[in-house]
Amino acid sequence: MDIKGFQFSAVEAAIKKPGRKDLALIFSEKPALACAVFTTNRVKAAPVLLSESRILSGKAQALLVNSGNANACTGENGMAVAKQTTKLLATELGISDEYVQVSSTGVIGVQMPVERICSSIPELVVGLQSGTLDDIAQAIMTTDTFPKMEARSAVANGTSYTVAGIAKGAGMIMPNMATMLSFVITDAYVEPALLQKTFRLGVDDSFNSITVDGDMSTNDTCLLMANGAANNSIIKSGTPEGDVFSSILRDVLLSLAKQIVRDGEGATKFVEVIVTGAASDEDAKLAAKAIANSSLVKTAFFGQDANWGRIFAAVGYSGAEVDQSRLSLSFDDVLMAENGIFAGDDAEARGTVVLKKKEFTVTVNLGLGNGTAKIYTSDLSHEYVSINADYRT
Amino acid sequence: MDIKGFQFSAVEAAIKKPGRKDLALIFSEKPALACAVFTTNRVKAAPVLLSESRILSGKAQALLVNSGNANACTGENGMAVAKQTTKLLATELGISDEYVQVSSTGVIGVQMPVERICSSIPELVVGLQSGTLDDIAQAIMTTDTFPKMEARSAVANGTSYTVAGIAKGAGMIMPNMATMLSFVITDAYVEPALLQKTFRLGVDDSFNSITVDGDMSTNDTCLLMANGAANNSIIKSGTPEGDVFSSILRDVLLSLAKQIVRDGEGATKFVEVIVTGAASDEDAKLAAKAIANSSLVKTAFFGQDANWGRIFAAVGYSGAEVDQSRLSLSFDDVLMAENGIFAGDDAEARGTVVLKKKEFTVTVNLGLGNGTAKIYTSDLSHEYVSINADYRT
């Protein structure tokens, strides 16, 4: 994969435990157009606060990211560390520290090992000669079981360009947003307005439409950098080239988001929850989120139990307008319930077959209007409990 | 325990599986003052809809309750069954069916075995000669591991009276309300306004202040009947007798609610979540509920991991006004974090000792105002997943 004008590096800074790379750098040879979305949690990690203030310039040239420590609930000292480390990195790179984004993931409430990070930064910069985006995807993993990457290329007016992204997820995954870091880069030369609009819509349909456990993290970040190094003629909104760019950027975002759900902590199922017929799109999203976050629904998925009644119960308390006599529900194409009641004994056997699959769709029609929503989620397994009971040890 | 003028009966109607009593009756020899609260889920079971309409009279004389089938998502047929069975019971008892409350708990979406219930009703009425309230507490259990009962007696102007209650819970437990049935009876002669006010406040502080898994059921019901059979002089609001009555009724409700949390599905911990210093009581309740419902917080409790950062993260997404630099948190009397940051290494060891206890308190001070709230909750264990993965089998 060739993404022009970007360099990568990852090193072992022993932030949490020795033996794995946990400090990484993405560097653009020239300042890139940048946009980002961050957690809406009111308890925000220091790197989120710092990056949020810096992204206002619309530009970024480097991203410093670590796993093993979230630098959250670390107070003024945490902010001082974020500033100190990005300042040191900026000096080493010979760029303005205002163009350095910073991101952290890991345990909350523990101060960062600032000396180990600072002493690793020169090595990190030297590593830009030989690193790959895959190295970064590996270095940002916490309880993830596989690195998450996606890339697409296209041609704009005869010049090819690439959109590539990486992500980490696993737990604390919830719309708006997740314990989720995602960094997407492109060498395409794109009109800023098109970039921002596509990014915003793409994040809504991807990272803001997934949930693993309903917990929202203090560190969620999705950052996009576009450095124009492909030297294509500028891609504008409302053109065929603009449509192609939007389409592949959204594909990359959605692919990364789905990978996060597939690798949700302890997940054994990937479930697409579709709500139709709601009084509004907002109601549809409320209902879909209630289903996707219900512990009872998710344990039934884990147990491969076609317990559609729990899904109706979740819809009922979601806050969406509901008329129980109009509800219908299908697992894939098997109609389980209609007009609020069971569709018959045959459905039970056929529905159970669907739930034994690794991936399936749950469609609930509220029978009230035209509102729709889609949420991707996983099941709730023994393994989730094990991972999170012992996370810090 | 002597509760004058009430009779009890429970029989085996083989509603779900043979070998246990699953159909029960509480009968008051004369019509009793009655008040009730029901689930706020928009998907409501037929017995809830029927009982809700009947309680408007302010009177009840009998309660028919079954376990093994929720009679929820059963459509018009479910309502017909609720009417038919209560009509038959009323005829056998020689009372108006408008005075018969009905309640069900168990699997959602399966039609009731109406013939088995109807054929069991005569036996149920005969059993009133010899039954006890304890029989009812046993018969309404589903995944409960122990029956839940509480009783208190007092003397009003020289005449003794009793308040006694039973409950079932286990899963789908969430404020406003829970998969939770509770029936409280008293032979006290009480002013209706005092009865209703005390009941409402008592339910808010008990059943509406507990959560096990954040799921709200289709069947929640809390019913109070006061038949006055103790023949005490009427207990009025604003008198010492009124205060005593309020106090013991609220004690009974709170005791039953706490028993539900202690017996939450797979629960190994009983945790009192206290939020103080919120901008308002509403904000305090939002924060306390977010903590008590967080899968990440609850798995940390199960793992006996003093992971206070997850609790701050939950407060941060609760919707309550939060200034992260003012947050403090204690496990029992061990201060874990102050001004938003960790209180020091000594706290970690001492906090871990607290979390190894079976019962402890989590207190979060938001440092903003005078709002307070208290929620009782349990942890999230492997056993919860096992119970709910296989509930219907």
Can you describe this structure?
Two copies of one chain form a homodimer. Chain A has 393 residues and is of the alpha+beta class. The first copy, chain A, has two domains: 6-262, L-amino peptidase D-ALA esterase/amidase (4-Layer Sandwich); 270-389, ArgJ beta chain, C-terminal domain (Ubiquitin-like (UB roll)), CATH 3.10.20. Chain A is built from eleven helices and 15 strands. In chain A, the strands form two sheets. In chain A, strands 1, 2, 3, 4, 5, 6, 7 and 9 form an eight-stranded mixed β-sheet that branches. In chain A, strands 8-15-10-14-11-12-13 form a seven-stranded mixed β-sheet, sandwiched between helices. In chain A, strand 5 and strand 6 form a beta hairpin. In chain A, helix 1 (46-54) packs across helix 2 (75-93), helix 2 (75-93) packs parallel to helix 3 and helix 7 crosses helix 9. The first copy, chain A, is globular, with a radius of gyration of 22 Å. Mean pLDDT of chain A is 90; it is low at 173-178. At the A-B interface, helix 2, helix 8, helix 9, strand 13 and helix 11 of A face helix 2, helix 8, helix 9, strand 13 and helix 11 of B.
- Secondary-structure element order of chain A, as H and E? EEHEHEHHEEEHEEHEHHHEEEHEEH
Oligomer: homodimer
Profile the largest sheet of chain A: 8 strands, mixed
Would you tell me which CATH topology of the largest domain in chain A applies?
L-amino peptidase D-ALA esterase/amidase
How many distinct domains of chain A? Answer: 2
